[in-house]
Write a structure and sequence with these properties.
The protein has 87 residues and is α+β, with helices and mostly antiparallel strands. The chain has three helices and three strands. The chain has one domain.
């Protein structure tokens, strides 16, 4: 994941979208793995809600029955007039 974010600033928006989809897919796959060999919607929900401090490769997410947010923070990206990533 860190390799994806280290690439040059070209196509930053596309990379950020890919990163979000990649992270979401990793969470779902891990949830299915934890739900067992015969997953059901209930087993998947329980597995996801029991996922605490799951490391996506430098980004950690946690879920619970009362918290479906995943992350506890938001990061600000600054893109200048030429479209280059500044922060």
């Amino acid at each position: 994941m860190r390799r994806i974010m280290r690439r040059d600033d070209a196509n930053l928006v596309q990379r950020q979208r890919r990163f979000g989809r990649f992270a979401g897919a990793k969470v779902v796959v891990e949830g299915l793995r934890r739900a067992g060999p015969n997953p059901t919607p209930q087993k998947l929900r329980d597995a996801l809600e029991g996922m605490t401090r799951f490391d996506l490769g430098g980004l950690t997410v946690s879920y619970s029955p009362t918290n479906h947010t995943g992350l506890d923070f938001a990061d600000l990206s600054i893109i200048d007039a030429s479209g280059r990533f500044r922060r």
